[in-house]
Hints:
Elements: E1 2-4, E2 7-11, H1 17-26, H2 28-32, E3 37-39, H3 42-48, E4 57-60, E5 65-72, H4 78-93, H5 96-112, H6 114-122, H7 128-136, E6 141-146, H8 151-158, E7 163-168, E8 170-174, E9 177-184, H9 196-211, H10 215-226, H11 230-237, H12 245-252, H13 255-265, H14 270-276
Parallel strand pairs: 5-6, 6-7
Antiparallel strand pairs: 1-2, 2-8, 3-4, 4-5, 8-9
Amino acid sequence: MLLKDGVKYLPYEYISEEELTQTVIKYYKEIFGTSTLYFDPQTMKTHVGINVRNDGIILAPDKKQWYILEVELAEHSLHRHVIPQVTKFNIAYQQPETKRKLTDALYNLIKQDPYKTAALQTQKIEDIHKHLTEIIDTPPTIAIIIDQKTPEVDAVCKNLPFKTQTTEFKTYTRENASNVLIHAFEQLYEEPTPPKGLLNVLTVLEQIYKKGKTYEEAATVAAKKLKITEKAIRHDCTTDMGLKSTQFRKLIQNKQRLRTLIAQKYAEYETTINETIS
Length: 278
């Protein structure tokens, strides 16, 4: 049970594996990283011709990684579900033709999807097909997401032909309000440490938005907190962002525009930026 301000949140039991899968897919960026892309299982079944059970492909272009997603309920046998399917995929993956088909399928799906295309362009990936080829040439990681970890999980991971990562995805529902849910899980990636310039800007904005301080007050507090000069703080908020002081003050009143501006300069830290400017 979770308890917050006297309100109880009780364990939620998923009625089916499909329900858990759809929830995991909804939050895949929080699990795998903000720059990742999701492709449904039909990618392999329809476009590549590999009829193996999986819950999709997760692509991490910035890290040149990819994952085969396996979402499971603890009450089901992982030995019967995961090992045979991953073994079957491994046999197919050893064939150069399989890698070529998978690369081509992902490339075509990206080109057909403006969102996915824009996401790769934001990461300054010019030759998408070449980039995908290099990713698929590297063996995938099997990502096992399960509602409750059991000893069987570790045993299964030791018998898979690929590197594996697992995370327990638990859900709680508010007492007397079944539509209010809390999800608890460990991320399968590490958020990179923001560069100094971004950290300085976000420290100022945190003081403004969460502490209610003026820009001048926030710059003073941030300088003391980060042990640098106020001049350096103000420089990162204005000149380094291509803004004048008056422009930055005006943007503080427009969170959406400010988020967009900062994200353009620090694209890979979008989650951190959004958390501060919320």
